Amino acid sequence: MCIYIHPVTGSATVDHYIAKSNDVSRAYEWNNYRLACGIMNSRKRDFSDVIDPFHMQDETFHLDLATGSIYPNPSLDAQSKQDADNTIQRLDLDDAECRKARTDCFTEYIDGKINGAHLKKTSPFVWKEADRQGLL
After folding, report:
1. Which of 28, 40, 72, 97 is deepest in the core (most CB within 10 A)?
2. Three-state DSSP class for residue 61
3. Distance of CA 102 to CAs 22, 109, 110, 125, Å?
4. How far does Cα 100 stand from its chain's mean position?
């Protein structure tokens, strides 16, 4: 989702990108830790078909700002598009709650309740997509 971790998302947790159950030798390696909200961490579990955010291509995902729906960038190569779609499905990134969180952030910006700097700080993905789409 790439937003500020609100308590409703299950608080901030540390995900072992390569699950301990898949490679216990990586359990205490700093480069295997990823900050994740509790909900996304529990959805990822020990699956390895999720894109590593540290190695993700820029603009892997696109966003429909009116609906909050996330989808793979149509210009990606076939494998990258499949990887992005797998990540969306595995983490359920396009569920109603995720869509609502993204649209709420953008609506607050459009309604003047927050400025662009605040949007960028609390919801960098929404900000980046609004910028890419010329809406800032």
Report:
1. 40
2. strand
3. 32, 11, 13, 9
4. 14
